[in-house]
Amino acid sequence: MRIDILSVVPSLLESPFAASIMQRAKDKGHVEIYIHNIRDYSTNKHKNVDDYQYGGGAGMVMSIEPIAACIEKLKGERGYDEIIYMTPDGKVLEQSDCNQLSLCKNIIILCGHYKGVDERIRQHYITREISIGSYVLSGGELAAAVVVDAVVRLIPGVLNDETSALTDSFQDGLLSPPVYTRPEEYRGWRVPDVLLSGDPKKVDEWRETEALKRTQERRPDLLGE
Ligand code: ADE
């Protein structure tokens, strides 16, 4: 998968992709991530990327020209499955969206700033608008990093144990059950006996029950209640 990210603060995007699973995914050739500084596409002498909004009001708006120039250059080089705009008024991201996006070959992600982008960008270039939750960040970069992380780990071969993405919370519509590792007992706090029983059927049943219990307690909305 190739991911092109358009940003006015590219330095915000350096570290999230330079460690751990994301770095390994890049090293193994599962994903290529390119960060584009929108300012490089500004044609005016001050390298401006924003302007006052028509109709007045506080806050600047990201201008159409540099963003359009960058998107059109990229589209001239290859086809894109999705051109995504990160915005608090987009569709709130869910695991099912990440599953879909993990099947894409090429995607562009545009990070918003200030009051947002000129509406004509959204109308004429953007194919999908994503929010990572009902709160406002200073810019779309951290949100884009969240999307990229959640999507890239689903690309086959990225995780060592391929089944581990399948047993993630949300993949089966439930939260994950509790997990334990050694020691068996710490300050008298014991690992549940069933996990030490060596009976895989019992363990599976326990995990299912616990997943359901946890989902009912914490996210009853997932059960449609
Ligand atoms: N930009 C600012 N806030 C955001 C959010 N919650 N989700 C996506 N992009 C954003």
Quick structural overview:
The protein has 225 residues and is an alpha/beta fold. It folds into two domains: 2-152, Alpha/beta knot (3-Layer(aba) Sandwich), CATH 3.40.1280; 169-223, Trp Operon Repressor, Chain A.
What does this structure look like?
The chain has 225 residues and is α/β, with parallel strands linked by helices. The chain folds into 2 domains: 151 residues, Alpha/beta knot (3-Layer(aba) Sandwich); 55 residues, Trp Operon Repressor, Chain A, CATH 1.10.1270. The protein is 33% helix and 19% strand. The chain has a 5-stranded parallel sheet with strand order 2-1-6-5-7. Strands 3-4 form a two-stranded antiparallel sheet. Strands 8-9 form a two-stranded antiparallel ribbon. The longest helix has 19 residues. The model has no long low-confidence stretch (mean pLDDT 96). Adenine (ADE) binds next to strand 5. Adenine binds next to strand 5.
Keywords for this entry:
225 residues; alpha/beta; Alpha/beta knot; Trp Operon Repressor, Chain A; 2 domains; five-stranded parallel β-sheet; two-stranded antiparallel ribbon; 9 strands; elongated; binds adenine
